[in-house]
Amino acid sequence: MDEKKPKTELLDELEKGPWPSFVTEIKKATETSPMATDLLGQLELSYHERKGHWKHGGIVGVLGYGGGVIGRYSDVPEQFPNIAHFHTIRINQPSGWFYTSDSLRTLCNIWERHGSGLTNMHGSTGDIVFLGTRTEELEPVFKELTEAGFDLGGSGSAMRTPSCCVGEARCEWACYDTMKLCNDLTQAYQDELHRPSFPYKFKIKCAGCPNDCVAAEARADLSVIGIWKDDIQQDDEAVAKYAAEGLDIQRDVCDKCPTRCMSWNGELTINNRECVRCMHCINVMPKALRPGVEKGAALLIGSKAPIVQGALLSSVLVPFVPQEELFDTIKELISRVWEFWDEYGKNRERVGELIQRVGMANFLDAIGLDPVPQMVTAPRDNPYIYFQKKSENE
Amino acid sequence: MDEKKPKTELLDELEKGPWPSFVTEIKKATETSPMATDLLGQLELSYHERKGHWKHGGIVGVLGYGGGVIGRYSDVPEQFPNIAHFHTIRINQPSGWFYTSDSLRTLCNIWERHGSGLTNMHGSTGDIVFLGTRTEELEPVFKELTEAGFDLGGSGSAMRTPSCCVGEARCEWACYDTMKLCNDLTQAYQDELHRPSFPYKFKIKCAGCPNDCVAAEARADLSVIGIWKDDIQQDDEAVAKYAAEGLDIQRDVCDKCPTRCMSWNGELTINNRECVRCMHCINVMPKALRPGVEKGAALLIGSKAPIVQGALLSSVLVPFVPQEELFDTIKELISRVWEFWDEYGKNRERVGELIQRVGMANFLDAIGLDPVPQMVTAPRDNPYIYFQKKSENE
Amino acid sequence: MATTITPKRITDIGPPHYEKFLPPVIRRNYGAWKYHEVLEPGVLCHVSETGEKLYSVRAASPRLLSIQTIRLFADLADKYCGGYLRFTSRNNVEFLLEKLDEVAPLKADLAAAGFPIGGTRATISNIVHTQGWVHCHSSATDASGIVKSVMDSLSEYFVEEKLPAKLRIAVACCLNMCGAVHCSDIAILGVHRRPPKIRHDMLAKVCEVPTLISSCPTGAIRSAVVEGRQSVEVIEEQCMFCGNCYTVCPAMPMNDPENDGISIWVGGKVSNARSEPKFTKLAIPFLPNNPPRWPEVVEAVKNIVENYAKNARRFERMGEWIERIGWPRFFELTGIEFTRYHIDDFKNAGLTFARSTHLRF
Amino acid sequence: MATTITPKRITDIGPPHYEKFLPPVIRRNYGAWKYHEVLEPGVLCHVSETGEKLYSVRAASPRLLSIQTIRLFADLADKYCGGYLRFTSRNNVEFLLEKLDEVAPLKADLAAAGFPIGGTRATISNIVHTQGWVHCHSSATDASGIVKSVMDSLSEYFVEEKLPAKLRIAVACCLNMCGAVHCSDIAILGVHRRPPKIRHDMLAKVCEVPTLISSCPTGAIRSAVVEGRQSVEVIEEQCMFCGNCYTVCPAMPMNDPENDGISIWVGGKVSNARSEPKFTKLAIPFLPNNPPRWPEVVEAVKNIVENYAKNARRFERMGEWIERIGWPRFFELTGIEFTRYHIDDFKNAGLTFARSTHLRF
Ligand code: SRM
Ligand code: SRM
Ligand code: SRM
Ligand code: SRM
Ligand code: SF4
Ligand code: SF4
Ligand code: SF4
Ligand code: SF4
Ligand code: SF4
Ligand code: SF4
Ligand code: SF4
Ligand code: SF4
Q: What would the pLDDT profile of C156-183 be if each residue is shown by its tens digit?
């Protein structure tokens, strides 16, 4: 490319230092894309003026899809004509973010032909993000992507690409096959992903165990978090070995157990009845302790970022589903949740907010789940009970 | 008295069993009062019909006072004419509920002359409660009470009689003189007690230490709870003696310490820096451990029962006031709190509710207190900050 | 104009000063107590820095006392305590002795008069309670009768120290919750389950309609004209039976013998010992009002107490025990059913949803 | 009517199936991993029930990657991993090796290309972040530049295991908080401090006024006619600068270089290990936007990290450490000022008031 390099005295500062530099990345991309050059220029301007230079939104997309593309236009297009349009494309990542070098090269080639050559690997939701192209390139990109076996992710009031931790592919603690479940759910909900028809966005994340390496607890409308029902598997010899190697089992394991249900006197005893399956002891002694053998997942509902009613963490909806039953149970449950949300959800109201508004008990009624004490940290502490008129046998 | 005894087959059941019976008490009172007889009759009726038989309120009182008497009228006066009126009188208890036998007899005599002969020793707020008299008896009772050195308590939207734990009179843990403070405050606020002029009630309770034997945390608009600032006083010999006598110091003391800041290996070490002064270790080993010597109290604000905005616990307003400064500090603080409450409090809005409505920071501004981290369990977790326009040097 | 000299009316004198009610041993050792021992349930011995000792004997009281019984207490105080006694913050009566050898005879006299001795340390002390049908217009149940029935069945826990820790029970007869019902190990609470029955005939005369409407926390009350009269109506689905409307307006009575009853709450506390003060949480949403002995309530409380006694660790209050074993296990052990009513739906409800996978099965 | 045969458009195929991207060693041992070891920061060894081993080498990525760099990664995967690699949930890249002796040369190649290796176990892993000035219209600050500046100063904590436990940092450029900023050990958050500057000229044309009004959580937006045009006005005192109005209406821009800046939050987590997941809490309400290096932000984060590194116990996450020592001490140790802004005044604010005397001085 023979574009003039913009002056980037501020951004150049960000090429110094040990951490890999995004500025270097953009500069690299200028080799193949004039968009990258103008991005550099506009960004330098933002750095000088301490403010962004993008216009508000703009709806663009590919035929038949209602999402997957975030429209973006420069507010200084005269100065930076190559990024007058600078839309991003969200692409369903393969479960667990595994790739072959060939598949990556295919993606790079498509993006060299049709976009800025800049990506996010990956977006915060988990998608492959192609960063910056023109409206007229969207259909060609889409065509080449689908031909290569890739498809768009979600945006707007739609299902978003589910994501998962690496799970059974590389983790001894996975209590179910996270990658399979994530893939199956992504495939099952292609329509909901591509054609926004919900009150707001809906995200699913699948973590293989309570360590929650995909941060489902914090940012999924439906969190599937692996857990076991029986006792921790314990190898006493291996425990002894950790102790011999200098691990302070009392201080670092027992005293950090949230329920203090472990005791150590040369032998480790776990009161599994009181264990809350937090993973700590297993994390510290992976060779000695392992999740039980009766495996499955807890289904939690409703986490999200703070806008507008305050951030929510996912809360327990079904305490345990055996691994074999996960896919079917989730599909059934989701269909009931969506039905209720469709009918009662307000515009831009996430599922978690809806539940808070209508009350958990009413929500459970609507989706046909019985209340169980695992759903709450404690029963109500206020006496404001809406006693129902037709009460069973009270 | 030669009144006919009513039939009380249901109430009679409540004279059986080991616990002292209130029915027996009412029956005893019939010896001196026909009101007691009719009370028995009406109560038996309530027991049959499973509902109360009192009319709604009614404002009665003594000259110049706006409270201290709860008006009460039977809704079946034809059946029970002696309790057609059945007002209660609330009387300031002496601090710590100490009495001489003579003072009690004086009270009994007054009440024999002018009322039902039934009392509560004491009401839930702490008052002496004279249970049941006629409107025309109110002035005579009041006259005799004041002559005997007693005065009325509060009711309605007024200050209520402060109360306190036994404190230095009989407790080794009192961090300030609860009875003196309680008495001084009661005397200081006689006008506010007797002439309702607040948006709602205002209660003060004084506990000598964090054990809070007067339940201030739960039910006082201003809670004064004794605490010390320096280190727990520790007597190692006495500790050793407890251990020798069989106390499991590790399990029963260290493991129950909320911050686990104690350790035991034949010698007890307390990391006083992390101690939250919960009292547990002191409670278990009163001969070995004692509060520190730098004593005073924490001032907490705003607890109350659930009506209407939900129950509140008292929350920290001033983490520590040295014992000598308590009375003056509280008086100054209360005057500022009342000023703000007077101006901004809604009708029937307790101080705790007001603070929640306007925000703690605004409340602090208004009463001229600086925010300190001890006031909160944690800083805010939502990003909805009302940044002020004129911000200092941010 | 006739001039009659009236003696100046005495007002605003406050309570008598406590000092004159303190026994000499206390006056001498005020602020100088060093430590205490519990000699047996109900008998405390406080030892001063000077070595002096004070013996306190705590006896149960029904709180609702006749002047006859108060005179009896006064006589006992004269006989054993130089005329001094006190009441506690839970309405027990305490006799304050200087001599240990007078404790036994005092105990005998109290026992003979029907006043059990106990309530110290790891016992069930007196039940803090309210007026009920004895005096209040608001009550959904009686208070004293429930207290008597429950304590009759639990009195062994008052006179003997058989519990892991203190257990504080409270009774309140309506949602106003006079007392510290909202922070008790076990709370017994009268509840209504039907909306107010509006007295359209008198409403406009006795109540200010705007105040009434704004008194309802859920906005269930609407202004309405009924049979040509200015009145209000209640949207039934929005009413959660708090009774606040009745407090401000007599024309909104809540009483309903068929639907009023009792709820049971557990796990609250006020002390800061170990854990922070806690609110009481719902255990049983509803039990019938069954005077004179409230057998369902007695049974329910006893069941909870016995499970606690059997399973909690030493020094663990009810709420601390439940937090350790988890609520699911509490419901399992007690056999209490977990229902939709247990799930909070008030203001901060979301914060009670289980927001982790810390799960016990 | 001309008939052109168009090839059927491929849609709704979803992502490629992951199986074809799994290296053979994983395919063979899928679901059969037994345990793992961390050989050195950034190098994991997973051992299967069968005894087979998988070596994973984790390298830092700026996340914003050019196709040039992705091709470089692909080449390295070909060279060492039979062409297989993956990315992590925090945007690092992981090379998956069967042979231990290829780890060292791979590391050398990565180092030469400028990609540090680390991020495992008790380190600071990659900063999860957002678009900032690179792509988003909402941003109150940049994201990538802050990440680069902060990680430059903290990279020792990535490549060496010098911390008591994992430390997760996140950056979001506005209150929408894309990512898990609200549950991170340290969160860096772009904030506005002035209300939207209303574009009355275009408002009625581009926005639906009722939707706009109802978008404001505090009800600060009112309909108004300005210079004869239908528009809105904002009650300044009621605005807390959330930007939700701008999300629904382009005529409400929030950008303001003088007043936009950064806030710092601490003590969140998402894992269920030991303690339950926690929200991040406010540490510093405001620091200026100072590109290209944000020295104030770097300094503030470093200060917090170093205090944590020095004072926390092993296995204690940031939030767990602070809860143990108490917030007063956190503010004391870090020298951060506690202000009115730290006291919550949002919906459930009351529950953050210290409702006990559990006090530390
Ligand atoms: C690209 C991405 C950030 C990134 O750099 O990675 C992103 C970018 C935007 N997000 Fe996001 N969000 C992204 C992940 C998230 C996440 C994290 C997640 O999904 O796990 C969250 C928090 C979790 C959640 O959903 O609550 C998130 C919470 C939001 C919100 C607040 C939603 C809420 O209910 O609280 C908004 C505002 C909105 O929807 O109106 C938002 C809105 C936006 C918009 C569309 C801006 C807007 O005002 O409409 C941003 C477009 C930026 C741009 O120009 O490209 N974004 N957003 C992430 C999506 C990439 C991907 O598909 O992989
Ligand atoms: C007599 C007493 C109960 C008892 O048997 O001991 C009592 C009795 C009444 N209380 Fe109470 N309260 C009594 C202590 C309490 C306490 C405990 C305390 O003060 O420590 C509370 C909880 C703490 C608090 O203030 O929040 C309490 C919270 C209420 C409430 C709810 C107030 C609130 O803000 O949540 C009401 C309703 C109201 O004020 O409208 C109330 C209202 C009432 C009324 C006046 C009924 C009414 O609807 O207006 C009761 C009159 C009963 C009667 O006929 O005698 N009473 N009330 C207590 C006063 C005796 C005394 O002076 O010593
Ligand atoms: C007499 C009394 C104070 C008064 O001014 O009247 C009192 C007196 C003592 N209390 Fe108390 N407490 C008294 C009501 C309370 C209350 C208030 C209440 O029950 O409504 C509490 C808060 C209860 C709660 O948390 O719900 C209370 C929580 C404590 C505690 C903390 C117990 C705990 O582990 O949570 C202690 C320490 C202990 O028992 O080890 C304590 C300890 C004591 C000591 C040992 C203090 C001392 O050294 O003298 C006294 C003898 C206690 C005993 O009964 O074993 N006192 N104590 C009250 C007796 C009430 C009764 O008749 O039963
Ligand atoms: C590769 C990755 C999953 C993936 O599918 O991509 C992963 C992989 C592993 N995690 Fe994780 N975690 C990964 C993100 C997470 C996240 C999510 C996040 O950071 O956004 C969390 C939640 C963090 C939080 O709480 O804020 C997470 C919380 C854990 C924990 C719990 C740590 C704790 O004490 O709170 C463990 C257990 C441990 O480290 O002892 C764990 C343990 C592990 C183990 C040891 C599991 C195993 O046996 O293979 C893996 C190697 C960890 C290591 O780095 O030392 N992983 N792990 C993610 C690597 C991200 C990165 O590049 O740094
Ligand atoms: S969430 Fe659990 S199963 Fe999944 S990668 Fe992390 S530790 Fe392994
Ligand atoms: S998993 Fe957690 S709760 Fe269970 S024993 Fe281990 S440390 Fe304790
Ligand atoms: S509150 Fe403290 S000082 Fe007062 S009586 Fe109870 S233990 Fe003693
Ligand atoms: S007073 Fe409480 S916090 Fe302090 S050392 Fe004793 S048990 Fe621990
Ligand atoms: S709890 Fe209710 S019914 Fe009972 S005394 Fe208090 S106000 Fe009256
Ligand atoms: S009882 Fe309470 S909720 Fe029902 S109408 Fe009256 S005030 Fe409203
Ligand atoms: S955090 Fe805000 S500014 Fe940053 S990408 Fe998300 S929506 Fe845009
Ligand atoms: S920024 Fe938020 S609070 Fe301010 S006007 Fe807009 S929506 Fe309302």
A: 999 999 999 999 999 999 999 998 899 9
Count of CB atoms within 10 A of residue A310's CB? 22
Element (H, E) at B42: helix B34-49
Q: Could you give the C-alpha distances from A187 to A123, A151, A182, in angstroms and in order?
A: 19, 10, 9
Range A269-283 average pLDDT = 97
Distance between CA atoms of residues C3 and D51, nearest Å: 113
Q: Is-contact B254 B264, C-beta < 8 A?
A: yes
For residues B242 and B256, give the distance between their C-alpha atoms in angstroms, rounded to a whole number.
16
Q: Which residue from A48, A46, A53, A65 is spatially nearest to A159, judged by alpha carbons? A: A65
Rounded to the nearest angstrom, the distance between the alpha carbon of D223 and the centre of ligand 12 is: 14
Structural contact between residues A357 and A302, judged by C-beta atoms closer than 8 angstroms:
no
Span of B143-152, C46-55, C329-338, D227-236 with lowest mean pLDDT: D227-236
Residues of C in contact with D347 (CB under 8 A): 348
Peptide bond into B162 cis (omega under 30): no
Q: Which of residues 165-184 of C touch A (CB under 8 A)?
A: 175, 177, 182
User: Which residues lie below 8 Å from residue B185, measured CB to CB, with a gap of 6+?
Assistant: B162, B204, B206, B327, B330
Cα-Cα-Cα-Cα torsion C279, C284, C286, C292, nearest 10 degrees, comes to -90
CB-CB: which of D177, D281, D360 is closest to B380? D281
pTM of whole model > 0.90? Answer: yes
Task: Tell me which ligand sits closest to the C-alpha of residue A199.
Answer: 1
- Give me the mean pLDDT over the B204-213 stretch: 98
Spatial separation of the C-alpha atoms in residues A124 and D129, rounded to whole Å = 7
In whole angstroms, give the CA distance from residue D72 to residue A362. 54
- Between CA A95 and CA A99, with CA A96 as vertex, the angle to 5 degrees is 85
How does pLDDT run across C80-127, given as a tens digit for each residue?
999 999 999 999 999 999 999 999 999 999 999 999 999 999 999 999
3-state SS class at D230: strand
Q: Which residues contact C119 (CB under 8 A, 6 or more apart)?
A: C41, C42, C58, C60, C90, C92, C125, C126, C158
Asked if B384 has any chain D CB less than 8 Å from its own CB, the reply is yes
DSSP H helices in chain D: 24-29, 67-81, 103-113, 144-159, 200-206, 209-215, 244-248, 295-311, 318-325, 327-334
CB atoms within 10 A of CB B339: 12
Q: Is C342 close to A379, i.e. CB distance below 8 A?
A: yes
Q: Positive or negative CA dihedral for A89, A95, A96, A102?
A: negative
| Dihedral pair phi/psi, residue B227, rounded to 5° | -160, 160
Judge contact between A98 and A110, C-beta under 8 A.
no
Mutation test residue for ligand 6: of A276, A283, A285, the one with most atoms within 8 Å of CB: A276
Q: Closest to A376 (Cβ–Cβ): which among C240, C283, C343?
A: C343
**C65 Cβ below 6 A of ligand 9:** no
- Find, among A394, A242, A377, A359, the residue nearest to A316 by Cα: A377
* Closest of A269, A242, A275 to residue A257, by C-alpha: A275
Residue with CA nearest ligand 4 atom 30: A211
- Reply yes or no: is the peptide bond before residue D129 cis, omega within 30 of 0: no
Q: For position C8, what pLDDT does the model report?
A: 83
CA distances from B292 to B173, B228, B296, D319 (A): 10, 6, 10, 30
Q: Specify the pLDDT at position D99.
A: 97
Query: Which chain A residue has the Cα nearest residue B261?
Result: A255
How high is the ipTM of this complex? 0.96
What is the Rg, in whole angstroms, of the alpha carbon atoms belonging to chain B? 25
Whose C-alpha lies nearest to ligand 8, atom 8? B257
Nearest CA owner, ligand 7 atom 6:
B213
B391 vs D contacts (CB less than 8 Å)? 193, 286
**Ligand 11 pocket, residue D146 CB under 6 Å:** no
Q: At what angle do helices A351-358 and A360-367 cross, to 10 degrees?
A: 110
